[in-house]
Amino acid sequence: MNTLVDAGFSPRREGFAPQPLIEALLSILPAHCVLHREEDTRPYECDGLSLYRALPAVVALPEDEAQVRAIMQLCKRMNVPIVARGAGTGLSGGAMPHAQGVLLGLSKLNRIKRIDPAGGTAVVEPGVRNLAISEAAAPYGLYYAPDPSSQIACSIGGNVAENSGGVHCLKYGLTVHNVLRVRVVTIDGEIVELGSEAPDAPGLDLLSVFVGSEGMLGVVTEITVKLIPSPACAQVVMASFASVEAAGNAVTQIIAAGLIPAGLEMMDRQAVHMVEPFVQAGYDLQAQAILLCEADGTPQEVAHEVAMMEAVFKRAGATSLQVSGSEAERLRFWAGRKNAFPAAGRVSPDYYCMDGTIPRRHLARVLGAIEQMEDDFGLRCANVFHAGDGNLHPLILFDSNKPDEVERAEKFGAAILELCVQVGGTVTGEHGVGMEKINQMCVQFSRDELDAFLAVKRAFDPPGLLNPEKVIPTLARCAEYGKMHVHAGEMRFPDLARF
Amino acid sequence: MNTLVDAGFSPRREGFAPQPLIEALLSILPAHCVLHREEDTRPYECDGLSLYRALPAVVALPEDEAQVRAIMQLCKRMNVPIVARGAGTGLSGGAMPHAQGVLLGLSKLNRIKRIDPAGGTAVVEPGVRNLAISEAAAPYGLYYAPDPSSQIACSIGGNVAENSGGVHCLKYGLTVHNVLRVRVVTIDGEIVELGSEAPDAPGLDLLSVFVGSEGMLGVVTEITVKLIPSPACAQVVMASFASVEAAGNAVTQIIAAGLIPAGLEMMDRQAVHMVEPFVQAGYDLQAQAILLCEADGTPQEVAHEVAMMEAVFKRAGATSLQVSGSEAERLRFWAGRKNAFPAAGRVSPDYYCMDGTIPRRHLARVLGAIEQMEDDFGLRCANVFHAGDGNLHPLILFDSNKPDEVERAEKFGAAILELCVQVGGTVTGEHGVGMEKINQMCVQFSRDELDAFLAVKRAFDPPGLLNPEKVIPTLARCAEYGKMHVHAGEMRFPDLARF
After folding, report:
1. CB pair distance less than 8 Å for B169 and A193
2. Which UniProt keyword terms apply here (chains A, B) (predicted)?
3. Mind spelling out the 3-state secondary structure of chain B?
4. Whose CA, among A300, A345, A432, B124, lies 20 to 30 Å from A114?
């Protein structure tokens, strides 16, 4: 249901002959681990952001760390780009192949090596699915907290690359807060271990810089994650509001009351009307905005928190309030939120899911501005998002059969992200920069800041072979994009100053 | 009360003449911001680790960011080392001056620039004292959570450099989890802002790598910290155990029960007997180990958590249990823990406070090994520490008037840290590496891992002028130290394998 437009990125260099590379890979890998015929490499041409596509020169599917090392050493020797890929569910084109490069698929490194229930840790390979970790930990009453929407399919290696989030991240943190150690193969084929099972590793915190580095610094071959006790119970409070502003203020008041909900999500009227006919979750069609606020823990904790949540929402002017009375009802309340993307597919031929983040206090203002942009760009936009984190996911609805709508959707998306920067937020909350937001990085950061990123990138990858041309824009690209760095919280764009 | 031994580190290079440097600094700073007479620079010769001392060539005390930039540019031009210093309360020699360098004191950058109660943030300069932030936030019902023992005196800039912890870090995180953004002057005099008020900044997470980088990457001039609501109440459960092992297992069971105490501290028998005569906290002198376990939050939450804590401790074999019945009693229970260092000073001429971290499950085993080392090294050691984090603070008691005791204390300390590495822990929990633990870094990390640190250091500071000769050991230093890297959790030292 995503758009299927070939952006023509990274075309094959004229005269590029993949054969020597394929032969070299076949000399270090079993034949079944090297894919090079077009029909075999086609499934790897894009990730979840199908707007950008490229066929890789060759796909390598190593079965163990030694093979990963050999691939890295080979590519360095032959000066060949490497793009690592987990399950390919990413939404920013981070795993889009390089036309002259190796697509390094990690799906065969899929063992859960160890679970330590007393220590609350699991040691897994990068190809293990996010949900499979929680399934393996369930017999011990434990689970892995970060839960991206794609958790059935996405891999923990991809989660590390993107620093993935999810509904539970407000309370339990992003991937970076739930990974204790990673084992990494560098571009030289060396092994380094970053982080530690103990809190605060000595020296520089290279674990945090590696998590979320989108495949630019090395390839992870082993990950030690934190497991936490599964909560005994959970309940969700669903509150309606007569305006987006009132709902935004209620979010601020929940946090100000010292509550840290297990999830705090908002849907605007457009989103509610999009999903309700699809899922029949019982959403209030009169509301301008709905909040879903979850408490988890022991029954006493949940009862206490739910009472506090209800009190805050009442004070904040909720027009209607419901508390889930059973696990079935709790799941029904969440069903609309979780099915927003498929629901968008029912009402629009295509949609473009954005991922900006803003300080919570600006929620109402930014949502108001997005509404105004719907007129400006002539496209509808539904908002379904992690309100507690200030992490917006505007869904821009369009039809890719009308070519100018693709362009308008892209411009609409860019305008939303640049507004996020203006109010002191960022151009991505949990989906990464990848291909998609590389131009907006020019707005987010000063040249000196981008140079600091580049210097660290070069420290790990001097030849620049790991996921090249993504995440960090060059000086030339920013000059071409023609928009300047906005200092957080400052308004420098006259054309957006009206919001 | 720390030892007063000059280790002779970093002696003045023969023929080094500080005059041109002093004159150059006087050309860019007011005269009262440049200290160069010996009696003026003497107070800066060491930080809280007085084992290592050096007089700096000159002390610069800038009054604003523009002066910091000018100093950095000057030092780069003149190829002069720079050591930044906050309040000088650090315990690993991180702020020890370089004899041919500038000691850059940040105490005059001490403004609280902004407090945003709705957003839960404060923007402060690096010289602001840790506790001053909470004092300024108190009228809004907010506070800054990380609370190192030195919080009355230590500066937030120093906390950022060391990634400082404290009693509350188990629940509320280290400095890195409570800092949202830093403004940094690079060695080139450029300004970069790292991090964001929104969760998860795009690009590489350079904020996390900067926090805890011990002055090696840049000089911070502005810090945006997170403020959280002050808990309505707090209670502490004090439990006695008949063995250190039983207390260690109780810690594991608290965490396994899904509790995250606001503090979870252990004192062994030696520590209890050291502090009780000094503070009369009412500690159980029969116990082999005492745990202090705090709950904070709303009265209902606290009551619920305290009941769970009591139940866990009973099941874990506590020989006695007390719950603080009033705020005065709560503070009295904590008084012994908080006064352990002064108490050590009463019973021993000198002490050496270590800072290793281990996976919690090895608490009993490591404490047993330390007890055995007391015989081996002929020195006593009291243990007072953040048990919930697995962060040990062994206090080695010695007398510096007996020269061989200094050497034995240092060797004892090194043996403890290397044992921490062997069981999968680290050589520092919250005090940093600095001068003190640079040799143990050779044990903690492989050469490839140290090279990754060096590469990132060089990315920020190509000429290597920022806090040189600290934190990251050279190949030559590791060769001289003669101990090899231990893979986490593996036992490779035959001489320590008996523990």
Report:
1. no
2. FAD, Flavoprotein, Oxidoreductase
3. CCCCCCCCCCCCCCCCCCHHHHHHHHHHCCHHHEECCHHHHHHHCCCCCCCCCCCCCEEECCCCHHHHHHHHHHHHHHCCCEEEECCCCCCCCCCCCCCCCEEEECCCCCCEEEEECCCCEEEECCCCEHHHHHHHHHHHCEECCCCCCCCCCCEHHHHHHHCCCCCCHHHHCCHHHHEEEEEEECCCCCEEEEECCCCCCCCCCHHHHHCCCCCCCCEEEEEEEECEECCCEEEEEEEEECCHHHHHHHHHHHHHCCCCCCEEEEEEHHHHHHHHHHHCCCCCCCCCEEEEEEEEECHHHHHHHHHHHHHHHHHCCCCEEEECCCHHHHHHHHHHHHCHHHHHHHHCCEEEECCEECCHHHHHHHHHHHHHHHHHHCCEEEEEEEHHHCEECEEEEECCCCHHHHHHHHHHHHHHHHHHHHCCCECCCCCCCCCCCCCHHHHHCCHHHHHHHHHHHHHHCCCCCECCCCCCCCHHHHHHHCCCCCCCCCCCCHHHCCC
4. A432
